Amino acid sequence: GLLPEQGGARPSTPSGVKSEVRGGQVMLTWEAVPGARFYRVERAGVAGSAKEMVAMGLTTAQFSEPAPPRGEAAEYTVFAVGRNGASAGSEAVGVEVPRGRQVGLQH
Questions:
Q1: How far apart are CA 77 and CA 79, in angstroms?
Q2: Contact 99, 71 (CB under 8 A)
Q3: Which residues, other chains included, contact 88 with Cβ-Cβ below 8 Å and sequence gap of 6+?
Q4: Mind listing the pLDDT tens digit for each residue in 10-24?
Q5: What global pTM score does this model have?
Q6: Nearest Cα residue to 65 out of 27, 31, 16, 95
Q7: SS3 per residue for 20-42
Q8: How far apart are CA 17 and CA 64, in angstroms?
Q9: Which of 13, 19, 25, 59 gives 93 a disulfide partner, CB atoms 3.0 to 4.6 angstroms apart?
């Protein structure tokens, strides 16, 4: 059934989370977690803004979305979700988009 099993274990915490910014996209990858049905990703702005869920139901150990605006940063946390609930959150990985020097703009 859909109910949690009594005493059933939750998935272990995702590890090996890596982030990179490529072509204007944030790419996150992590190691697959045994027993996870899917993964959930939360994002927090570094200025202490609230965490928000940006992905739910991912069945592969990867996620991508548009990168934050130039000069801004974000932190991502990954959770594995199994029959008995969600794991603890992974170590947060940060993404920072440097302020690029753009030719021809007045500063």
A1: 7
A2: yes
A3: 13, 79
A4: 999 999 999 999 989
A5: 0.83
A6: 27
A7: EEECCEEEEECCCCCCCCEEEEE
A8: 13
A9: 19
